[in-house]
Amino acid sequence: MGDLPAVPLTLEGSWVLHQMFRWNRNQWRTATDSVRERVLLEASTVLTRLEAGSANGHPNQSALYSLVGHKGDLLFLHFRDSVADLHAAEREIDDLELSEYLQPVHSYLSVVELGLYESSAKTYAQLQERGLEPYSPDWQKSIAEVVGRQGAAMSPRLFPAIPEAKYICFYPMDRKRDEQKNWYQVPMAERQRMMHEHGTIGRRYADCVRQIITGSIGFDDWEWGVDLFADDPLVFKKLIYEMRFDEVSAVYALFGSFYVGLRVRASELPAQF
Q1: What is the pLDDT of residue 19?
Q2: Catalytic annotation, pick one of 101, 124, 171, 259
Q3: Most CB atoms closer than 10 Å: which of 48, 149, 234, 246?
């Protein structure tokens, strides 16, 4: 029998795009009242439709946030069924007359991901007991069946609606892979233990913050993206601070820039600008 795979199984769902922009206030101030009215009416109409998303099947929504701080002014968040659909949403924003007053400063592409550490270890062990060789056709068929069943059961988490919360906190992160500490060389059982403890902390905050984890390996500069949604932004600090004491974060985590914003509804666009 070959060695059991070191890679945990994952489930993937909605594709996600974050678009960060800077607002050209000087150019906006020189526009006439009629131009401003036209621009905001078009943007509000399109955003209303994008907020509503799909009437059938997956939500496939978009949302707008006003960013706090110097890293940008606006964040468009899109959840779609495919990269092609994300690209179409991106182009739709670009085609708005509003885009003439927006300067892109950052973006992030990823896909909703649920890691199956505990299920992976159990599944691999069961298949080994059945005498199946890792990566053989029968092995791959069994893995596909497991992933299919779990994906169907977890569909609401894989294809979520954008939470209604007032605040968003987004940040990318990596797992260390340097000479001293390399997450990808830690045995599966140890990674499983650490991720279980890590998840326990997040579940304690489930009543006040919604977490959506997305995978970005091969898609962007970091390995994962994290979106937190809450009505009280202080919970972002408390959750992330507590997680810093957790082994998987304290020893193996690296974090990118944090973006915090307030939800802006389509109906609120005129007041926003």
Answers
A1: 98
A2: 171
A3: 246
